[in-house]
Amino acid sequence: MALYKVGHGVALDMNPYVLSATPCGTSSGSAISVAANLVTVSLGTETDGSLLCPASFNSVVGLKPTVGLTSRAGVIPITPRQDTIGPLCRTVSDAVYVLDAIAGFDPNDAATRYASKYIPYGGYKQFLNTYGLKGKRLGIVRNPFFQIVEELGLGQTFENHLQTLRREGAVLVDNLQIADIDVILNVTISGEAVATLAEFKLALNAYLKDLVVSPVRSLADIIAFNLKFPDLELTDKIDQNIFLAAETTNGIGAQERAALSNLQNLSKNGLEKLMRDYKLDALVTPRSDVSPVYAIGGFPAIMVPAGYDSQGVPIGISFGGLKGSEPKLIEIAYAFEQATMIRKPPSFKP
Q1: Distances (CA, A) of 149 to 14, 18, 86, 91, 130
Q2: pLDDT category, 235, cuts 50, 70, 90?
Q3: Which of 79, 212, 257, 318 has the fewest CB atoms within 10 Å of its CB?
Q4: What DSSP designation does 191 have?
Q5: What is the signed CA dihedral for 276, 277, 278, 282, rounded to 10 degrees?
């Protein structure tokens, strides 16, 4: 059982596999509803991990599209540079059918104009290929991602998954390193936090001003509303520190430009360089700890159920790549899912 921030309020979410375990992330409600068979499919939003993490912890498929592949119009923003909308479903096939339905150009979201060029003729369903792993070059970054699952006692589980990938025809390029990975995973050092705070205020104010009817029209209004109604907004359980920090920003100044430049360089010299140097089709990592790597560059990824720990808490395996690589990622994820069929219904343990 845990409290999670949703907008400026609090929601009570419970992991349907182990009720005392975290369901993880602000899209956890979407993941839980699918995992618990309350709905057939659902949508979530991700800025950094909010699709991939709930998918991993709730044993569902989470597909984080390339930023701009799906419209964000009407969705409360954090940063248009990283925000993306994607499906959370019980199977890769369901997720792909949803992606086909929601991908495309929207005049109300400028990012979709550029990203729509990535949509293949005939859509994404054609890439649900049982033999999709054949010939795929997959990069394995063990440090630090595989060290985490070793500590959880799931090291052998993922070694077995690597063997499955090989058996299904993939070429594994092992023991790779992403340049400056420690910096990328630290939102303060990378500049992600600085950039996101300023972008959040700008994007949220624009969103609120565009609403036809709203009691609040700015981030400052929201902060004031929360202070006026602390019992309603549960401010004793969740503070406004992020809102307050964002409100102190004043657009994109020198500090923010430096942060944005650093993020661009980290992506260019990190994932992009690794993928191109080794001619990789995808990166393979356990869990969602890799999410900042994909977030700061607007890159796609897909999470597939991969197992359960000794307590029954789910864990996923993620496949990620460069912008527009959804067709390859779908082939890889679907072939892995069909070769393993790991997902099982939730047990609702205490």
Answers
A1: 23, 18, 26, 23, 27
A2: confident
A3: 212
A4: S
A5: -30
